[in-house]
Give the backbone structure.
Amino acid sequence: MKIGIVCYPTFGGSGVVATELGIALADKGHEIHFITYKQPVKLELLSHHIHFHEVSVPNYPLFQYQPYELALSSKLVNVVKENHLDLLHVHYAIPHAYAGYMAKKMLEEEGIRIPMVTTLHGTDITLVGNHPFYKPAVTFSINKSDAVTSVSQSLKEDTLRLFDVKKEIEVVPNFIDIEKHNLTYSDCQRASMAAESERIITHVSNLRPVKRIMDVIEIFEKIQQKIPAKLIMVGEGPEKEPAERLCIAKGISDKVLFLGNSDEVNKVLSFSDLFLLPSEKESFGLAALEAMASGVPVVSSNSGGLPEVNEEGVSGYLNEIGDIEGMAANALKILADDQTLSKFKLNARTAASRFETKNVVPLYEALYEKTIALALQLK
Ligand code: GMT
């Protein structure tokens, strides 16, 4: 199949999933066209199966806001026509599903019918899309998609609760290439982060308020009062500075390393002992799955789709949002002794294997085939 993938190219769950999906589909012989404003961060290599089409928005002083949707829908029309695409798969409803629908309508005028699959990722539904300024357009573009998927059962339920959606929503979970998480580390790499006697706790995110970064710091503060430990914070975002200030105020800044955005998350995970994800909302928690795939147990909140990923008492523990005491106590249970920690590490990897690429990508392929066949019938 010839598939156009529309996504955000930046660090962040939906862009990573879309990119990994494109790479996995290209490995299976499909022709993949990424259409976005920058080459996706995880897309290192272009090949004869993988193409990248950049959407540029010319800057015109009349506009206070440059019209990205307009540029994207025009680009989609051209890419679909020039490359004879069979299907568009848009990740994150805003504004991708909307621009995709406009492109479909323009193409129909020329007798070209292309089906569109929309994947809902989380904040496009629970945070941003739900805002009254966007809601009518998001509802419209979900209902006008030829097929809709969500990354968890929880997100499907949120979508049906928050929007007047008439389309069937199929749950296709996020996925992971376990082999890429088979990394080993040298003593010297670990030693650059922590002493041998210290446990390494890690958090990876875009450091936005929804991730409850201050909870991460407070949970860690309690852990390090009981056992020697270091906290590694990976990512950039608005909560970074307040978190750094909190570490200074608490007198623990020598135990917390802020690494910024990193291409070496898997390396950091390979020597981590515990992952913290106390988010306010998390439709799936790809970061938790990546940690588990690296054999790192997870202490998380029980929000959204996290209970579908992190298995209570097996790959880690789940607490109510904001339960700092509970999360610290559960972290200490896991880190208590080497034997318990090893058991949780092993379990985390086994639990992650439920989401292996080879089990999930065929679900998308089957959906594409069904959607294309339906579109052909309607011709
Ligand atoms: O985690 C983020 O805030 C980034 C965001 C995104 O859309 O890039 O992540 C969402 O999509 C990920 C991939 O499907 C999910 O794993 C995250 O749970 C989800 N984030 C939220 O729901 C807050």
In short: The mean pLDDT is 94. The radius of gyration is 22 Å. Residues 12-15, 17, 92, 121-123, 151, 174, 206, 210, 281-286 surround GMT (CB under 6 Å).
